[in-house]
Amino acid sequence: MVEKKLPLRTGVGIVVLNSQNKIFVGKRKDNPNNKWQMPQGGVNTGENFVSAMKRELLEETSIKSIKIIKEIQKIYQYELPKNLIGIIWKGKYRGQKQKWFITRFLGDDSEINLNTKNAEFIDWKWIEPKMLPNVIVSFKKGLYLNLLKEIKLVID
Prior knowledge:
By secondary structure, the protein is of the alpha+beta class. It contains three helices and seven strands, in the order ββββαβββαα.
């Protein structure tokens, strides 16, 4: 299998909880078919996970007003479906290994602005945690189910 020779991209993911413990999700502009995801992105060379997390969150959502509730110790990963290998990330990776953070949004919804320099989302909303597995692309469902367990530890 050729795709197994491709490495996993190192990335970060951010669970953003509002004051009602609802989770921020964005609708990706490259997959607008009612599929949503939490902010995530790659780690640049020489960048630590916390810096990458804050940068990605700002780049994708304009959100700055957060408090880190938990840095999840486990590194989660997912593999791209075969039809996306060679297309996403200029064909350099077969999936991602990610360090996830659970954060509390301390700002007002007016802080959220998707019209950023390299916009990735075309819409956003707050959802109940239990809805996460229902809104995500199928190849990330296992990852999101694991994250849901981590989120429940923090909000229950």
